[in-house]
UniProtKB/TrEMBL annotation:
PANTHER family: DIPEPTIDYL PEPTIDASE 9 (PTHR11731:SF193), PROTEASE FAMILY S9B,C DIPEPTIDYL-PEPTIDASE IV-RELATED (PTHR11731). The keyword Hydrolase applies. This is Dipeptidyl-peptidase-4. GO terms for molecular function: dipeptidyl-peptidase activity; serine-type endopeptidase activity. It holds the Pfam family Peptidase_S9.
């Protein structure tokens, strides 16, 4: 449940009122895009490493094209296809190139299911013949080319199918799929949400075998939500949702041999109540890698399965006192040695293991975190990664030899740098931002980091902002409970240190998250400028439990979510209240999702410190949240009842003294409305007055139409009235 899930495309503001020669941000114009930062379109490198492709849409003509550009010059070279030349479809929404780039899957009529899943009508385009073939008349999920692009595998109604492109023959791989009972080839709700993947099948290197997961969710409890819509009677959405301590899907692994049209179950070993968060074929077409994780998520086996006899062997084991993060970083080299990332030395680093799972060497090392693994170039024998070597609020891009030598910093500017590499690691596009610099994009040589060309910046945005005299986002640290915590502060642009100002604190605070970074205004920051113009100081502090400062700092909250994080926010607020220019009687706090859980606890446990709190889509008791996320940090309620209950706002409702606003979406399939309803009942029974708002049918993001404008108007008015 990460912060990025909640605040996608939130607030980008403008104004029309003039005060003292400066324009002032207004909520009414918050959605007109005046301060929208320009971003690069999503691009995909071609195998030659010199060119990339971009999906372009002509909305007036309702056509789509896949256009080829030169990395070095940025010039458009040609189009792979344009839907204007196709009689069967007018446009398409997405595409996927085959491995040899001679065929393209085109997606149309996409329909969202959950956060990451969708179904749609797909077509196969032959680049050489310029012909289009419809994959299926049905809306299917996760269609994927075989390595030689002769076939496509996909899922329809919880069953796996393969489609032979040359013959047009469809083969049904599984037959037992059934809604809310058995799922083949795609993940269930909780795997999709918390392990962040949907496609649960994989082709081997030669296309002779498929590996796939089967989920038996027949014993998983159902959750239902009333969706009110526009009809006379509401509809009901019913889906399987395992809450903490309840029954998960029973997951099993199968291999399917296409020639024999036969599936075989893989007996992984003596496991009980476990997860399979990743499957991936190795460079050997007969060897499948499987990650098996215990329910507590602190004991992980990497298993190799021989497809000839389905024999399984554990090649590596990793344990942790708290939990192990699941990533997509596992990379197999040609000899089946592999690259792996781990926190086992207390910081997230890169390791190399041989084909038998024996450690060859630790590639990166130090009191800093590898924050992104970009890949391995077999020609130069270099690994490319992003890290916090220059401070936890900054990111830089590096290369390093696989033997751990010749490390090279490829980015120069301080701030947040990230990279998108060409397929052959000749170039990378660097995106950079800092508190003073909106996103800028440049092309660099991956060998030495030298600038090749500038691509795009946001200088026009800076020119627009000049008329508004925005206050800077000031990065610093604050010492709280024996730790130097990262923070930022936005003050009124006419700040006077001799005055007293009310303070609004924002935080998220979830395990491994980060809300304080050396990055430019985004999402809520323009709203904070509006509040600053109204005479508020806005602050964010990343307390214990947040990320990128080592495993010990992140995992100190284990089994006690909402304890140390809340203590840090209360202690920080007290420190701010002692400052000459902060009014200690007017300190508020707000947050969304995990942040709503935090702000609720803060105004209850810190009722002598916080006079106001806003909680949007809050988790009110971890007993109500899903197994995978919750038990990773809390184990089960049966094992850890005090950890669940002592830090649940429900059990502290009688402590409410200040002004409290609860907000939730009625169609939230992630953090259910049940949380807010139970909190409302607890407050009513404690005879505590509060404010609350429900947005009908809106999901965890609470958006659509005028919803966001209404939501932020509501919160702004509440802050101005109560704080």
């Amino acid at each position: 449940m990460k912060f990025s899930k909640i605040l996608v495309g939130l607030l980008i503001a403008a104004t029309s009122t003039i005060y003292a020669q400066n324009k002032e941000v207004s909520l009414e114009e918050i959605y007109d895009g005046t301060f929208r930062q320009e971003r690069l379109q999503s691009l995909q490198s071609l195998d030659n490493g010199k060119e990339y492709v971009v999906l372009n849409r002509d909305r007036n003509a309702n056509t789509s094209s896949i256009d080829v550009f030169s990395y070095k010059s940025g010039d458009k070279l040609r189009s792979l296809l344009n839907s204007a030349d196709l009689s069967e479809i007018s446009g398409f929404q997405g595409f996927e190139l085959s491995e040899n780039e001679d065929k393209i899957l085109l997606s149309t009529n996409l329909e969202q299911i959950y956060r990451r899943s969708s179904r749609g009508i797909y077509y196969i385009y032959d680049v050489e013949d310029k012909t289009l073939t419809k994959l299926s008349d049905n809306k299917v999920q996760e269609p994927t080319f075989s390595p030689d692009a002769s076939k496509v595998a996909y899922v329809f109604e919880n069953n796996i199918y393969t489609y032979d492109i040359a013959s047009g023959e469809e083969t049904q791989v599984t037959t037992d799929g059934e809604k809310n009972k058995l799922i083949n080839g795609v993940t269930d709700w909780v795997y999709e949400e918390e392990f962040a993947f949907v496609r649960a099948f994989d082709w081997n290197k030669t296309g002779t075998h498929l590996a796939y997961l089967k989920f038996d969710e027949s014993e998983v409890p159902e959750f239902s939500m009333d969706m009110f819509g526009q009809d006379l009677y509401p509809s009901q959405q019913v889906f399987k949702y395992p809450k903490a301590g309840e029954t998960n899907s029973e997951v099993s692994l199968y291999t399917y041999e296409l020639a024999a049209e036969e599936s075989k179950k893989v007996e992984l070993g003596d496991y009980n109540d476990f997860y399979i968060p990743r499957i991936k074929w190795t460079q050997d077409p007969e060897i499948l890698s499987v990650q098996v994780l215990n329910r507590h998520q602190n004991d992980l086996d990497l298993i190799f399965v021989d497809a000839e006899d389905n024999e399984a062997e554990v090649v590596m084991n990793e344990t942790d006192e708290a939990y192990i993060d699941i990533t997509n970083n596992l990379t197999f080299l040609e000899d089946n040695s592999f690259i792996w990332t781990s926190e086992k030395d207390g910081w997230n680093h890169i390791y190399l293991y041989d084909e038998d799972g024996e450690l060859e060497n630790q590639i990166t090392e130090g009191n800093w975190e590898v924050t992104n693994y970009y890949g391995y170039d077999k020609d130069s024998k270099k690994i490319f990664y992003q890290s916090t070597e220059n401070g936890s609020v900054n990111r830089d891009v590096y290369s390093i030899k696989i033997n751990g030598k010749n490390k090279n910093r490829l980015t120069e500017k301080e701030g947040m740098n990230s990279a998108d590499f060409s397929a052959d690691y000749t170039y990378f596009i660097n995106s950079h931002t800092s508190t003073e610099t909106p996103y800028e994009f440049t092309l660099h040589n991956a060998k030495n980091g030298k600038l090749v060309r500038k691509i795009k910046d946001n200088s026009a945005l800076l020119e627009k902002e000049a008329a508004y005299n925005f206050a800077p986002k000031e990065l610093s640290t604050i010492e709280v409970n024996g730790n130097e915590l990262n923070m930022w502060m936005i003050k009124p642009n006419d700040f006077d240190e001799n005055k007293k100002y009310p303070l609004l604190m924002f935080q998220y605070s979830g395990p491994g998250s980060q809300s304080v970074s050396n990055s430019y205004f985004g999402t809520n920051d323009y709203w904070y400028q509006l509040l600053a113009n109204e005479g508020y100081i806005v602050v964010t502090v990343d307390g214990r439990g947040t990320g990128f400062k080592g495993a010990a700092f992140k995992k100190v909250t284990q089994n006690e979510l909402g304890k140390y994080e809340v203590e840090d926010q209360i202690a920080a607020a007290k420190k701010f209240g002692a400052m000459d220019y902060i009014d200690e009687d007017r300190i508020g706090i707000w947050g969304w999702s995990y942040g709503g859980f935090m702000s609720s606890n803060a105004i209850l446990k810190g009722n002598d410190t916080f006079s106001m709190a806003i909680a949007v889509a809050p988790v009110i008791s971890w007993r109500f949240y899903d197994t995978i996320y919750t038990e990773r940090y809390m184990t089960t309620p049966q094992e850890n009842p005090s950890g669940y209950d002592e830090n649940s706002p429900i059990n502290h409702a009688e402590k409410l003294k200040g002004d409290y606003l609860l907000i939730h979406g009625g169609g939230d399939d992630n953090v259910h409305l049940q949380n807010t309803m139970r909190m409302v009942e607890a407050l009513v029974q404690a005879n505590k007055q509060f404010d609350w708002a429900i947005y009908p049918d809106r999901n965890h993001g609470i958006y659509g139409g005028n919803t966001r404008l209404h939501l932020y108007t509501l919160m702004t008015d509440f802050i101005k009235e109560k704080l």
